[in-house]
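Hi team, as promised in this morning's meeting, here are the two structures we talked about. I've kept the exact order from the run log so nobody has to guess. The first one is mostly here for context; it's the second one we should focus on when we meet again. Sequence first, then the predicted structure tokens.
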Amino acid sequence: MHTAARVHQMQETVNDPLREYCSTNTTGTLCLLESAQLAGVKKFIFLSSIKVNGESTTDKPFSELDVPCTEDPYGLSKWEAEQGIAELCKSSATDYTIVRLPLVYGYGVKANFAKLIKLVNSKIPLPMGAINNKRSLLYIGNLTAALQAIIQNPNSKNKTYLLSDNNDVSTPDLVRAIAVAYGIKPKLIAVPVFLFKLLGIVTRKQKAISRLLGSLQVDSSKIRHDLNWQPPYTVAAGLAEMVSFERENSCKN
């Protein structure tokens, strides 16, 4: 199972981001696969990204049938790795499974999800009550359960799957779910969406605002059908377990 990658950087520092991403995520992946093939490895599982499909959805969720539409160097490097894997395995005893992931959360989650958790726990009113979107997430427990099913089920041979909790939530719904998991009362204010967009223009952070306001849904029905698999955790259950792990480790430290 190949999980290592150069992930999308919030503040890029290199002069040629695409070259850096491809060096690790494309070339590095294919070198690893070639070594695995020489060693007689029978199955290669590659954790890719929903960014191969695109950054947002409108009328329908992303599926495996969609034509890839990458919008940044990270997504492109993952897509090129996927194509290389399929080509290298075409005439090989090694089969592959590619899994495209949305945002994965769980104990130790970082980046924007961690920032949202911190905001909710601050108990200050959050101006997200009027946002009407839908986003697919993936709890780490559902990811590991899916990987186990892929390992055990031969129907996963040479397939690409999209994964999610199969429990899409809006941004306000996520805020409420995080608050419930931490045992606090959510505080949401319904600020008009156009003010967020205006803020994005003024601060030159349109992409960050678009992620906050927009939808990104994933259709995970293919893996559920092929492998007779269901995600064992809902978003609420995943958040509850995440908080439980956090508190348990906090006590140990």
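And here is the second protein, the one for discussion:
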Amino acid sequence: MRAIAESAGTGGAAEVRAPIDIPALIDSHPVSSFQRWILVLVGCAVVMDGFDVQAMGFVAPAIVHEWGIEKAALGPVFGAGLLGMLVGSLVLSICADRFGRRPVLIAATVFFALCMLATTLVHTLGQLLAMRFVTGIGLGGIMANASALASEYSPHRRRVTLMMWVSCGFTGGAVLGGAISALLLPLGGWRAVFVFGGVVPLVIAALMLRYMPESMQFLVLRGRRLDRVQQWLRHIAPGVPVDAASRYVVHEAKQDGAPVAELFRGGRARATLLLWGINFLNLLNLFFLANWLPTLAVDAGYSANVAVAAGTLLQVGGVVGTVAMGPLIDRVGFYRVLVPVFALAVLTIALIGQPALPLAAMLAAVVVSGFCIVGAQPALIALASSVYPTTVRATGMGWSLGIGRAGSIAGPLVAGWLIGMHWSNGALFVAAALPALLSCAMVFCMGRTGFGKGHNNGNNGAATREGEKT
């Protein structure tokens, strides 16, 4: 089952020459410097995505001081950014499967960069709220498209590892945001942070416009710009003869239906719903821990320094988890890793809030929880890429993240409501362990669907079409 595209200007030789299987060619060659450069470019976009998402948190105290407002007044501003990301994930992922990953990723990067620069001009809380929502729409188009491109230029044997390393740039961007904010706030105030967050993505967008290719699988399935496919294949496999007479094959069917509807076809309905549920629950847990862990540590009687250390160690554990899980998943598969990881998270999250726990044990539980929850999120993005074929891959990944964004909004809100009801720390963290338990069960059920276990799962049907140069 495959789609074949043939370059214009073919002659009789093209009829006897075997078509070039693009995924197989990528799988059979070492990762080239060309592919590494693609991963660096999309990784830089993800880094600035993480920087700009976290920027509001770093500058919030300065805004509160300058405008003379209550800290609680910024709550809706934080929520507006997350809501914008939800909308962007849902909408821009569909655009990427229609128009291509490259133009949407570049446009989203330019858009959120300009919004960051425009944020320096706001003077009221309402203006800031509106700008954070609009900025979030652009940010919502980054992760799914960057991950889709990383997936489609990575060999199967290292795909999850490379995708998770790219996704790790989000956490790296958040860390960078803290360092840059500490440097710029005393020099130029909170607006200087937004200037940095706007200018650097514009530079990255210019580099992507100049150097970043489109997904070759996407172009073959669409029968477009096959001359560029020829050019890029020479960078990946210089020894393979490629010319204007070459034909290209991708073992997938071209699908013309509505991308969201396609997520539920080909036997993917159950896997899609489970992916949505797992992303919702995991991001609910992640944002609960990231937002409330330092505050709850202070409430439990720990010092402010310990509270900050706990919040930092959560992210450190996440980075270690992301780096460690990728090669392991490439070796033994998603489900053999994620099921025990979420099971371990149930135990360690419940332990964090126990009053009799020694400080060292509590911090160890935080690190392991970060390893399991924060570190698993990039793995879920990679899992989504393995479930869906090229024609709806960006949509599938974007909608999984979009539904997950609803969990990122709900997590801190639910936690705040439970705290308002005077739940103890022990009870709060036991409650937080329940989403991890449900995630564990849902990942196990997803393993039974058969999706995400092998190469190009979820592909079905066949199409043969003539390519054309444009």
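Starting points for discussion:
The chain is about 75% helix and 0% strand.
The longest helix spans residues 159-211.
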